[in-house]
């Protein structure tokens, strides 16, 4: 089998797993939010507890009429969901789900992840601009502001484990955490993890930083004009990005697939990895359903005045520690 | 005010700081009904706001001229459908004033009971929708909304067992109230207010210990005392701006004279001050409900016998104005009677209407996100604005 065929097959499998995961993560979030809000959540579609609901939603969105506003910039408008979806799915390419189980374990995996995940802004802005809608335009403006501001702290926070492990390769970072997850690294680990979570919220446009969706001000933000399958693609991309970032967090700070029995059975390692990522996802969801949204100027102030200097200092402190102690043996 | 300059609008021209005119409403997730605000934006900052009302106009005042004194109270409740008891009470109070009709003491107490429970229910809805404006239907705001609605439902259950209705009650009638408390109602009411009181503490913990909530509300939408007096805002807005005025105390109606309650006043005038005023009002209302249940006098609930036809209640020629403190502020009803079974003329003075007039004064200079926070803190109900 030529090596590229291996990547193609692995990519196909990962893509399908991601789509399935996204579909069911929405159900998880809805059930979780319902518990928080003393509701039941999806219940009737599929027994028990509405487990067919995501399928029904997907089918519904596929069958919806696809409305293109007459005043829209058709090319930009139609391409935007794809331009938004591709980077959000591409980030899964470098994530190893268990030793040797992934599409491509690049030696610059973390860098690839961060670079590609920043690209989503292009699709987002295309959607906001191409819709020719004032709400969408404002939302796109906010998106550019916010994502540029939060990419730097996000990258700095993610660089802390990279420095500690001394490698940008994801499998090497996990291997460096054997028996000692980076989140337990005294001081640095916890601070970096919290900074990573906050920056994650902003990079994923989740409450309290969801000003670009902001449905009480901008109705639905940049996707206000999208319907049917294009809307579904945008939704898919958002959740894929969110899950991808949760996987990255679990990998950088929570030891990836490491856990009891993961040495003997790599698949069990993948389950551990998934559980850890879902844990991060639930924390993000928990925050989402308990905070009110903050204003655009306050978001920028938090990023530039607090988070950016803090993560930069943290990175420098880590570099100092690593320079004095040396990298943990890989 | 930037009002004159706001008329010279440059549509977005991709150059520099051009102005963008954006419609917020009448169909908008946070329009609180059907309110249309034409915002003029410079980037994210609102430089002018043009408020357009009237989408929910239902000729209420004209309707009152065509309906008899017996029929109209249950229609009056449709002006402010979030706090339906309030308008009913204002109408019957005006009729009783003009017709010089006595109201038995028990009925007066029951009126206070209904009014205070209604205030709790109305403030519950306000808290929920306001937080939803700030937090979004897909965020923490929705959580507060669902919690607050859960409590409002408890109050509505009480109203349902009292009057048979959950939204528009028809409890008040000329000369008293229509229904007496059913068996076991008082005990259930005590339980309910105890639950609400305990949950209020939870809300306060959830909101006031949350710095995101504080930065969204403190210093936002400040109404100075002078502005409040000039524009004539009333209710929690006025009390949030340092005006110590409450009709229940300034001009007691029903049984308020005999009851003990505090009128909360805050001086900051921002959204947070208005929030604090309403949170204290919650507790004061609970206190009043308990006092009424403790001291409910025995006796008849209405001074008039029931009527066989709707035209049988007639009052003498005359005119009068009654005003009461609703959940949103001063609700006035001016009534002219000509001796027939229907009023000759009726004029509503809605609290939401006069409170809404403050928006163009305080919104310019704020960000778009603040517009919805300020609008929510004003707590307008458009049934009452447009009537």
Structure description:
The complex is a heterodimer of chains A (330) and B (387). With 330 residues, chain A is mainly α. Chain A has one domain. Chain A contains twelve helices and no strands. Chain A is globular, with a radius of gyration of 20 Å. The mean pLDDT of chain A is 85. By secondary structure, chain B is α+β, with helices and mostly antiparallel strands. Chain B has two domains: 50 residues, no CATH class; 327 residues, Orthogonal Bundle (Cytochrome-c3 Hydrogenase, chain B). Chain B is built from 16 helices and eight strands. In chain B, the strands form three sheets. A three-stranded antiparallel β-sheet of chain B has the order 1-2-3, with no helix packed on it. In chain B, helix 4 runs antiparallel to helix 5, helix 5 packs antiparallel against helix 12 and helix 7 runs antiparallel to helix 12. The N terminus of chain B is likely disordered. The interface between A and B is medium-sized, with 33 and 37 residues.
What oligomeric state do these chains adopt?
heterodimer
Instruction: Calculate the terminal CA-CA distance of chain A, rounded to whole Å.
Output: 31 Å
Find the biggest chain interface.
Answer: A-B, 33 and 37 residues
Helix content of chain A: 55-70%
Rounded to the nearest angstrom, the radius of gyration of chain A is: 20 Å
Structural class of chain A: mainly alpha
CATH topology of the largest domain in chain B: Cytochrome-c3 Hydrogenase, chain B
Tally the structural domains of chain B.
Answer: 2
Report mean pLDDT of chain A, rounded to a whole number: 85
Let me know the number of strands of chain B: 8
Strand content of chain B: 5-15%
CATH architecture annotation of the largest domain in chain B: Orthogonal Bundle
- Quote the distance from N terminus to C terminus of chain B: 29 Å
Order of helices and strands of chain B: HEEEHHHHHEEHHHHHHEEEHHHH
């Amino acid at each position: 089998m030529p090596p590229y065929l291996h990547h193609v097959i692995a990519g196909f499998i990962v893509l399908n797993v991601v789509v399935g995961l996204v579909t069911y993560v929405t159900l998880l979030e809805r059930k979780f939010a319902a518990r928080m809000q003393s509701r039941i959540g999806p219940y009737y579609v599929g027994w028990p507890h509405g487990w067919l609901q995501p399928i029904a939603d997907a089918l519904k969105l596929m069958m919806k009429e696809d409305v293109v506003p007459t005043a829209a910039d058709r090319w930009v408008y139609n391409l935007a969901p794809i331009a938004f979806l591709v980077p959000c799915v591409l980030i899964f390419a470098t994530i190893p789900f268990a030793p040797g189980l992934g599409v491509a374990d690049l030696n610059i995996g973390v860098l690839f992840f961060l670079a590609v995940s920043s690209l989503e802004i292009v699709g987002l802005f295309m959607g906001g601009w191409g819709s020719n809608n004032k709400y969408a335009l404002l939302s796109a403006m906010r998106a550019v502001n916010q994502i540029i501001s939060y990419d730097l702290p996000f990258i700095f926070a993610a660089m802390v484990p990279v420095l500690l492990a001394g490698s940008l390769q994801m499998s090497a970072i996990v291997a460096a955490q054997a028996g000692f997850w980076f989140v337990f690294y005294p001081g640095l680990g916890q601070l970096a993890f919290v900074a990573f979570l906050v920056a994650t919220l902003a990079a994923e446009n989740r409450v309290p930083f969801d000003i670009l969706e902001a449905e009480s001000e901008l109705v639905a933000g940049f996707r206000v004009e999208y319907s049917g399958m294009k809307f579904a693609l945008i939704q898919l991309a958002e959740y894929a990005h969110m899950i991808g970032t949760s996987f990255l967090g679990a990998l950088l700070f929570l030891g990836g697939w490491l856990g009891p029995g993961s040495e003997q059975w790599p698949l069990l390692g993948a389950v551990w990895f998934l559980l850890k990522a879902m844990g991060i996802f639930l924390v993000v969801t928990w925050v989402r359903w308990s905070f009110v949204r903050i204003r655009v100027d306050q978001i920028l102030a938090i990023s530039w005045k607090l988070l950016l200097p803090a993560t930069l200092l943290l990175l420098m402190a880590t570099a100092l520690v690593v320079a004095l102690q040396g990298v943990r043996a890989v | 005010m930037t009002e004159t300059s706001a008329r010279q609008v440059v549509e977005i021209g991709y150059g520099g700081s051009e102005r963008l005119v954006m419609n917020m409403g009448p169909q908008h997730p946070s329009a609180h009904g059907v309110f249309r605000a034409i915002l003029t934006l410079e980037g994210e900052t609102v430089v002018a706001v043009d408020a357009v009302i009237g989408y929910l106009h239902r000729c209420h005042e004209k309707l009152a001229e065509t309906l008899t004194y017996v029929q109209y109270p249950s229609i009056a409740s449709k002006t402010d459908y979030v706090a339906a008891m309030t308008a009913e009470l204002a109408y019957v109070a005006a009729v009783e004033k003009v017709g010089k009709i006595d109201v038995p003491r028990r009925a007066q107490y029951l009126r206070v009971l209904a009014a205070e429970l209604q205030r709790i229910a109305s403030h519950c809805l306000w808290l929920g929708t306001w937080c939803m404006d700030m937090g979004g239907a897909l965020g923490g705001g929705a959580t507060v909304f669902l919690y607050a609605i859960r409590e409002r439902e408890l109050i509505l259950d009480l109203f349902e067992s009292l009057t048979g209705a959950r939204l528009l009650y028809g409890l008040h009638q000329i000369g008293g109230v229509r229904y007496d408390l059913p068996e076991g109602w008082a005990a259930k009411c005590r339980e309910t207010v105890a639950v609400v009181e305990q949950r209020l503490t939870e809300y306060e913990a959830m909101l006031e210990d949350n710095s995101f909530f504080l930065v969204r509300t403190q210093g936002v939408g400040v109404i100075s005392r002078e502005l409040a007096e000039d524009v004539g805002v009333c209710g929690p807005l006025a009390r949030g701006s340092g005006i110590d005025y409450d009709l229940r105390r300034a001009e007691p109606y029903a049984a308020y004279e005999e009851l003990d309650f505090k009128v909360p006043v805050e001086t900051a005038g921002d959204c947070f001050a208005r929030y604090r005023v309403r949170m204290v009002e919650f507790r004061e209302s609970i206190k009043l409900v308990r006092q009424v249940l403790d001291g409910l006098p025995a006796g008849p609930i209405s001074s008039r016998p029931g009527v066989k036809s709707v035209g049988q209640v007639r009052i003498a020629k005359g005119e009068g104005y009654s005003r009461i403190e609703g959940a949103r502020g001063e609700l006035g009803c001016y009534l002219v009677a000509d001796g027939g079974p229907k009023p000759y003329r009726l004029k509503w003075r809605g609290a939401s209407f006069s409170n809404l007039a403050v928006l163009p004064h305080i919104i310019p200079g704020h960000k778009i996100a603040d517009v919805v926070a300020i609008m929510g803190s004003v707590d307008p109900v458009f049934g009452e604005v447009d009537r």
